């Protein structure tokens, strides 16, 4: 087993840094008088920074969650950070001016992602709703055999455990769930056995832990959107009635009456779109799929006071299965998705003052069916999904002030059709999902 590599691995050290109240650490092996370098561009550093000394180069690596190796050049003070060890291994060259370091796998603390309690049932296409009392309600979805589930469970963040709560009247997948002003959760539509697209809706009462059916929508629909308006009504828009046919109709649920009324129809038939409630109370709908599997770049705004839709400027890129996140500065970030040929890494921002779309930094990975969560500090965490060849465990963070994405560690499981919820303690809870072979009961925290 004698090799230059073994000879070079001389010492190990633990790098520890306190950032605010958090202590971060990782263990690194030092490779003196050597640098990482290879003949092609696959193994370039993902970033190079100038640091005063090797210790600050190690801190720079500790500060970038994707950093797994570094080279510090003494004469130039250049600190090169690498994120792909497969390409660095076997590319250690002698250089008396340089010191290289490897992060020992599994020694980074705290890890970005940690496992929490398992749900009692593996599920995907389900919904997750944060309740006022900090518990998270997970409802419905499909199990590993594709059976539509009516069961629901509650996650308690202080114990990290799940308990079964009341069941819905019918199993449903690809439904919506909206938390109402009085704390109840309204579930609408979805796919089911028997009736492929459901028109029914039901309310979960967190104080009793039970469900009650409420008024039916005029149309059955799945993969539609539901948006809570400022006056408490819930706007449901579009959605599929089967794999090829979608709707442009929209309806409003009045929580005090428990009834639905139709409102203006969208200008475009669409399912697999996103809906975002803006600060002025209007609802922005973007992209999705129209009939004949056409991917849409169009967007429209619902005006709650007139009950009408107005077409606005189109996105730069047609996309479906993307995410939409409202940022603290009021912009809406649209990320990733699929355009019927490619899994997209592009992202764009909608500014409601100008009514225009601007391309922003691209994700490191093209992905659809991922989740997006706006963190308390304003960054947006995207997690999982698929990129066309594989299911993804990777996560990335969008920084609104720089318009750039950085990797944010990996979940323990590659998953799509999962959910992500912001907890009251600021963490993000990811639940369930599948990878086309298995459905998952596991949940993890970022
Ligand atoms: C680039 O270098 C890496 C690591 O040595 C190697 O695995 C890969 O095949 C090389 N790629 C090309 C195109 O030469
Ligand atoms: C969660 O379930 C997985 C299998 O689905 C199992 O490997 C793991 O040990 C479970 N974790 C806990 C905490 O029960
Ligand atoms: C929240 O309410 C539900 C339903 O009453 C209850 O089962 C759950 O334990 C509560 N969660 C917490 C954290 O108190
Ligand atoms: C709602 O529709 C279902 C069929 O989808 C029907 O069984 C039920 O009676 C309807 N409920 C109301 C209140 O109309
Ligand atoms: C919220 O309002 C609805 C409609 O009035 C009602 O059915 C439900 O029980 C209420 N929920 C709670 C928690 O009071
Ligand atoms: C909210 O506003 C819409 C549009 O003006 C209206 O149709 C609906 O009845 C209102 N809802 C409530 C609960 O007042
Ligand atoms: C939106 O556009 C307006 C008009 O150009 C500009 O003043 C504002 O700063 C933009 N908003 C953000 C958050 O960039
Ligand atoms: C999808 O996106 C890819 C990559 O941006 C582009 O090359 C392709 O033309 C797009 N396809 C459609 C149908 O828009
Ligand atoms: C927000 O917090 C995450 C860690 O949870 C961090 O990686 C990210 O850089 C922070 N974003 C900003 C804008 O400070």
From TrEMBL:
Pfam families on file: Kelch_1 (PF01344), Kelch_KLHDC2_KLHL20_DRC7 (PF24681), PAN_1 (PF00024)
Location of the Apple domain: 49-94
Database matches in SUPFAM superfamilies: Galactose oxidase, central domain
Protein's name according to its UniProt entry: Apple domain-containing protein
Assigned keywords, A-Z: Kelch repeat, Repeat, Signal
Signal peptide: 1-20
